[in-house]
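FORM 7B: Structural annotation worksheet

SECTION A. Query
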Amino acid sequence: MDNVNRLWIITAEGAAFAIAARDMNEEAPMETAAVLGKAISNAMLEVFDGMPGE
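SECTION B. Predicted structure
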């Protein structure tokens, strides 16, 4: 996955989290925060996997 796609996924999930928080629904922010956290974790793992070893 390239950097543009990673950024798009994180941006989309971040927007979903912001909308859920704005709507004052108690369950939606927790669900969308979990998805956002997973997207960030996956992107970070891909970056770290691509780093040269020591």
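SECTION C. Observations
Residues 3-48 form one domain. The mean pLDDT is 81.

SECTION D. Sign-off
Analyst initials: ____
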